[in-house]
Records
---
Amino acid sequence: MLSINISELIWTIINFFLLYFVLKRFLFGPVGRLLDERQAKIDAGMTAQREAQAAVQANRDRLAEEKEASREEAAHLIAAAESEGEQLRADSLREAKSRAKDALREGKAQLDATNTQEEALLAEKSGELTALLTARILDSEE
């Protein structure tokens, strides 16, 4: 049969609580604090990682915006340069046409002057030629 020894039971209970107190005091407390400190470091590292990732994403977004702004500015500069080039081309073409018209007018004026001189010379020479022909005709009739 089963018998319970009260003194052993009391000593077992006392030993159990004494062992519990010693373990709690020298093992569970420091290990718990060590685990809490380690968890705090891990949490701080995770927070720092999230902040760093947010900063990296913010930098990527900012760089993408700057890149887009640079592309737009480059497109505007190219469009302005093309417009300026077209304007210069049109101005050059207008100036060339104007010079050509001036040269044509000057050429016509020179041609008209030459024609006038040639007509005057022809009129003068035809008068002389008429006088010579008349003189020959008169000489031959005589």
Note: The CA atoms of residues 98 and 126 lie 41 Å apart.
---
Amino acid sequence: MQSDGFLKHLVIAFGLALVGYGLLYGCDRHLRTRRGAWEFTFAASAQGEPTLTIDQPFLGISKVRIVIKDEIYEGATQRIRFDKPGIELPFGKPVFYDTTFLPGSITMDYPGHEVEVLPRTLILNFKEKPWKSGEVISLTQSEAWSNKPEIVTPAPQTQ
């Protein structure tokens, strides 16, 4: 008779653990995704220049456009939500994604310019810029961080 009581307690404990796990998983998932993801639209301007439009509805950020002057983009317009890792970009290269808690942070090399998108600010070529919905930001190749001379320290000389 004692083994029946043990089995009953084991089944009840397993059931409670399963229900607790389900509730905690659902709560965690809600906290991670409730603010929504960054939405980027990769397109070409009327002059064919690469244009990145950034939206984040929860934070009230909409239609912030970054245009790179003196470059050409001939691809199709693509809208991408950054709600999971490993997303391919139509132009530019991903440097870092953190989509653990949305909207997260995204850093990309955007034809020679470093663009870092954070909830509190936009960082362009290592300079912070406050979010202003509807703003159009033009970047030129002379401003590209990849064009800046690298600081090279000489190797120590051996004797």
Note: The longest strand covers residues 61-68.
---
Amino acid sequence: MKHLVISDLHLTKKFNQKKANELIHLFTSVDRVIINGDFWESYAITFDDFIKSRWNILFSVLKMKKTVYIPGNHDEEEELDERVNLFSDTFTVRTELEYSKVKYFIEHGHKICGDEPKKNKFLRRVAYTNSLLELPVTFFSNGILQKIYSKADIEKLKSYSKKNLKDNEYLITGHTHIQEFDKDNKYINTGFNRFHYLQYATIDDDGKIELFKE
């Protein structure tokens, strides 16, 4: 069974048919999907509006793939209700995949890093609701500035995985938007999927993981 692990789509009121088509193609190419947080963007859309939005074109294929849905810090758990069942079979804060030689612990990562400062929440709300800021946010969310901004969180995630996991175990997260496979620290980040980015990981029957960036 081939698993897809993807996070940080941050879907908003602004629907993009090309993006939707790419995601549907990706979802249908695997046996099971794991959405590892920040599926929708609570700073820009309510869960109710998200369910009713044109993004619901994704729901049937996600349901068919028996999707595991792990909420992140941008799809806040307080807003979620039983309608998560429209696009997922399993709703959890953490899941595991175990093979003969390797074990993956999959969670968004924000709960390991701690709460986001209130000033950051305000700035993100402005950025996610203002179309004029899309270009700078794109650069910030997947460039040098994001690496600087996320440095402390990345260090916390790596420290956690190195301290708590065995040699054949890995932590798979999203949250920081920086795709990485750090074997020494047993840390994997699947990357970022807003705007024109498509980043994700696949895990095959033998437990082999591959990262993709398009």
Note: DSSP finds eight helices and eleven strands in the chain.
---
Amino acid sequence: MAESLFVPQTADRKRIYDEITPQIAALVEGEIDLTANLANITAVLKEAFGFFWVGFYVVKENQLVLSAFQGTIACTRIDFDRGVCGHCYTTKEIIIVPNVEEFPGHIACSSASKSEIVLPVFDKDGAVTMVLDVDSDRLDDFSEIDAKGLGKIVRIIEKLI
């Protein structure tokens, strides 16, 4: 397990993802507790990018239930048919929302959240087992660079499930 994190001092998100992804892989290597791994991954993402909120919602009892996260208090349970996280769950696709106030059915866990990206995490059978939710306090803060970078991190998580 890695005990420290190197984050390049740059605004180039692709470079940051390229630097932190192998560090995340090393961080979770050998640790079998999924919650501990998710907690460390959220900490890395928060530290590396300063995102407003980053966390996981796991599938439990026919809902998405809050799991490891970094940031302000969050919604605890989200129905599969509600909000950006629910939309990601049902479509099984990465969702990038430039302005959350323009997303139909957006759940405002925090009024400070302005844009969002949510990625599905699949189990070995291809079912969505959780979603990675990242919020920004800036409009239009996410792009395909984030989708690809976070997607590589999601692949690491899928190997742990």
Note: The chain is about 35% helix and 25% strand.
